[in-house]
Amino acid sequence: MGGSSNVKPVISKIYCSSSPTTLTVRKRPHVINGGGFVVMNASHGAVFVVEGCGILGVKGELALKDGDGGLILSISKRGGIAQALSTRRRWSGYLTDFEGRKKSVFSLTDPKCPMSNAIRIHLESSGHSGGWDFQVHGSFVDRTCTIEDYSGDIVAQLGATDMVGGKELYQVTVQAGYDQAFIVGVLAVLDNIHGESTRC
Are 21 and 154 in contact (CB under 8 A)? Predict the structure, then answer.
């Protein structure tokens, strides 16, 4: 794991690597543990698990866990009348402390038509005044999208895998120093927006 000044944690520096890391994402059928997906390292070990409403029983609620099943992040979509009237949906990722208090880490606002605009992400701890910190470009459905920071640097890139599995498998390469758990949290929201494995 990275220990230099180039580490850019969003959730924790323990999820940042000192070199680029390619992870494999495997979608789970809804009949197995309620769907969601598993994120594996090069040794095919599970490093992250994302659960959707098949497990949680609530639409618009996602859970990001580590490979041992420990909760890292809760992700929820804002609801209510104001949300229904809005042209954009807002998602938020929360850390929960040992006393059960939630702390917002990031928010993601997407257009109701996901193909029309870049999806922008705001960090609660952001130190700059640009209004957003990261954005998603390209097609998540085709696995040809990138996540870039506000200066235009590519932070993570999706791509097809040469493993057997078709659309059920894809890869994401996270650049050195960036928070892999945060990137997987963003993928969880993209998966749900596009009606894939986390959606009931």
Answer: no
Query: Tokens 């959606």 sit at which residue?
Result: 199
Q: Looking at residue 175, what DSSP letter applies? A: P
What percent of the chain is helix, strand and coil (3-state, nearest 5)?
15, 40, 45
- The alpha helices in the chain, defined as continuous H runs, are 53-56, 81-85, 180-193
CB 176 within 8 A of CB 183: no
Query: Could you tell me if 135 and 148 are in contact, meaning their C-beta atoms sit under 8 angstroms apart?
Result: yes
Dist. CA 63–CA 75, nearest whole Å: 6
Between CA 193 and CA 134 the distance in angstroms is 17
**CA torsion through residues 26, 64, 197, 167, sign:** negative
Q: Write the class of the CATH domain 13-193.
A: mainly beta
CA distances from 53 to 60, 69, 72, 98, 136 (A): 7, 16, 17, 24, 24
Instruction: Report the predicted TM-score, pTM, of the whole model to 2 decimal places.
Output: 0.88
What type of residue is 157? Q
Q: Where are the domains of the chain?
A: 13-193
- Read off the pLDDT of residues 15-44 as tens digits, 9 standing for 90 and up: 999 999 999 999 987 766 668 999 999 999
